Amino acid sequence: MRGEFLDVGGARLYYYAAGTRGGGEPLVLIHGFPTSSHLWQDLVPLLPEGRRVVVVDLLGYGRSDPPGDLALNIKAHADRVLVLLDLLGINRACLIGHDIGGGIAQAVAVKAPHRVSHLCLVSSVAFDEWPSREVKMARATLPLTRHLPATWLLGALKTDLARGFVDDELAQRSIDRYIKSFATPAGRDLLVAHLEALDSADTVEIGARLGSVPAPTAIIHGAHDPFLPLSAARRLHQAIRGSTLDVLDAGRHFLPEESPERLAELIAVLIEK
């Protein structure tokens, strides 16, 4: 496993590669808000052998550069993913996206369907069924809260994110890691920029085009996801022809961390199609 930085549109994105180059298309893993490539660490070793695995930190997350003046909406992230694939010499890949990473994967699939061999949407944003009420309230109060200490914003974020985990101890460890980069005044501004970019406008537009997606698609959702309703997953299932829908009965939002074995099984089935 090795990590590198690549210049993508004037900013450095961090990614790491795992697995081996075999006969099948690579697997590209795309995290969501406010996580990082750490989200996938327990899933990566369980993925099918003989596949190249690429795990990316989106712009403004993890080890990747802060965005500066660059856009953080779903379409902008998707454009950068396509450039990243070009730089890595990947013509076609199975895209696996979680949360807004699922929206980014959808955007790539409708913009460049020939680049997507398979599509796996895990706890994915979709249509107009996001962001959650809590995020909408946070965005509405940003004119006031953006000037509060970073510790106050992080405390509120940490409490909210914990609802997405079943395991309280895992939640504590993972959330602390995810929010660490937002703990400074500059980090607070970055968090505000991410919150401002959480807008369903892109997925509403993308949703109207999902019927043209040719890639075999798996949709995976937690039955008790507090952020994204099960109706979003069902609408994706209806919109993407031939897709499968698996609902994990005990699952909440952070399935890659809490159900990696089951995810690996479902991905293995998907990529054989």
Task: Explain the overall architecture.
The protein is of the alpha/beta class and 273 residues long. It has helices at 74-87, 100-111, 133-140, 142-145, 150-162, 168-179, 185-197, 201-207, 230-239, 255-258, 260-271; strands spanning 2-8, 11-19, 27-30, 52-56, 93-99, 116-124, 217-222, 244-248. The chain is globular, with a radius of gyration of 17 Å. Helix content is 40%, strand content 19%. It has an eight-stranded mixed sheet with strand order 1-2-4-3-5-6-7-8, sandwiched between helices. The two termini are 27 Å apart.
List the helices and strands and how they pair.
Layout: E1 2-8, E2 11-19, E3 27-30, E4 52-56, H1 74-87, E5 93-99, H2 100-111, E6 116-124, H3 133-140, H4 142-145, H5 150-162, H6 168-179, H7 185-197, H8 201-207, E7 217-222, H9 230-239, E8 244-248, H10 255-258, H11 260-271
Parallel strand pairs: 3-4, 3-5, 5-6, 6-7, 7-8
Antiparallel strand pairs: 1-2, 2-4
Helix pairs in contact: 1-2, 2-8, 5-6
